[in-house]
């Protein structure tokens, strides 16, 4: 599966644009899961 980083970044709710995982949803979610919290896109 190809990551659609440019497309993902258009709708990404995360304000940390310097994050290496910004727009790379699979890596972002994996990292937040390891830390025991949710990424901003999954918070309500």
What does this entry look like structurally?
This protein has a domain at 18-44. The chain contains 2 helices and no strands. The protein has helices spanning 5-11, 25-35.
The major β-sheet equals: none
- Mean pLDDT metric: 92
Low-confidence stretches: none
Global shape: globular
What is the element string, with H for helices and E for strands?
HH
The portion of residues forming beta strands comes to: under 5%
**Helix amount:** 40-55%
Number of helices: 2
Distance between the termini: 28 Å
> Nearest-angstrom radius of gyration?
10 Å
Q: Please state the structural category.
A: mainly alpha
Tell me the number of strands. 0
Short description:
The chain is an all-alpha fold.
Can you tag this structure with a few keywords?
mainly alpha, 0% strand, 44 residues, 2 helices, 41% helix
Q: What is this structure's SSE topology?
A:
Blueprint: H1 5-11, H2 25-35
């Amino acid at each position: 599966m190809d990551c659609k980083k440019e497309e993902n970044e258009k709708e990404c709710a995360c304000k940390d644009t310097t994050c290496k995982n910004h727009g790379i949803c699979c890596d972002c979610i994996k990292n937040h899961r390891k830390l025991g919290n949710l990424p901003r896109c999954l918070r309500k």
